[in-house]
Amino acid sequence: METEHVVDLLEMLGLPSSASALEPCLNEAARQDSTYLSFLTQLLEAERHVRQRRSLETRLKLSRLPQQKRLEGFDFKYQSSIDERQIRELASLAFAARKENLIFLGPPGVGKSHLGIALCMEAIQKGMTAYFTSMDRLLADLSKAEREGQLERRWKVYRRPDILMIDEIGYSRLKQDTGNLFFQLVCMRYEQGSMILTSTKGFGDWGDLMGDTALATAILDRLLNHAHVVNIRGDSYRMKERKKTGGLFTPAPPLEQNPILISGQN
Ligand code: ADP
Ligand code: MG
After folding, report:
1. Are 33 and 77 found together in one domain?
2. Cβ(198) to ligand 1 under 6 A?
3. Considering every ligand atom, which ligand is closest to the CA of 238?
4. Residue 92 is part of a domain; what is its CATH number?
5. DSSP for 216-250?
6. In the structure, what pLDDT confidence band is assigned to residue 240 with cuts at 50, 70 and 90?
7. Does the Cβ of 75 fall within 6 Å of ligand 1?
8. Which of 29, 80, 143, 230 is most exposed, with minimal Cβ within 10 Å?
9. Are 129 and 58 in contact (CB under 8 A)?
10. Same domain, yes or no: 70 and 119
11. Torsion sign over Cα 97, 98, 99, 101
12. 232 falls within a domain
């Protein structure tokens, strides 16, 4: 009877997990002859645990990460151009707390998205928020919002998260108006929030990519002012997987072993 009243009170006060944990906590306290304080601690910790787990799940869902990738699943030995220590340091997320940017450059398949997503997951686990999109999706979304007079509302989505990850820069060239939208976004997040970008194009090619050298310079000026750049040179990991499974596609030998190139040299 008394217990029911306390359960009602806990629920009314917005502590539903404590309400359901009350009975087992009471039994445990009686069994262990606990103090009042240790009983109360146990009850409130049950509440906190459930809340933290729920908040983590919500942040993970809202991040729109396309897959779950972890640093533990990354084979650093395969990609020797990556400094593992640098990635481990980045995983402390101090860069995100300082609102700095992180840019992964490199050819397809070398692990840019994997590392970016893994760092977003680390951030989410540490209580931060992240939002994932691709460059194409971002620009299509902003253009549509602009046409429909909804731009102000959409900016909020990209301004709010602690980390905004924009994947796959460099696959398609920007048009004048989308270039301007990207510039506005970069200005908006400058020193306000961290960005993780991945690109197959080196910075020297961004003028061509943005279709406007002056605009690209202005964008890079802001992006790179507080930034960490991880330049990955190496073979696609997908290639390794294909080799292992004996796929039909055989990659070209490395340059120095390529007989055509060697015979072409003088
Ligand atoms: P990128 O974004 O550079 O094109 P991805 O990160 O998408 O490449 O990597 C392609 C696939 O290979 C993904 O499934 C990724 O998890 C995996 N992968 C890439 N590099 C590694 C690595 N060094 N260790 C383990 N898996 C890797
Ligand atoms: Mg990728």
Report:
1. no
2. yes
3. 1
4. 3.40.50.300
5. HHHHHHHHHHTEEEEE--S--HHHHHHHHHT-S--
6. confident
7. yes
8. 80
9. no
10. yes
11. negative
12. yes
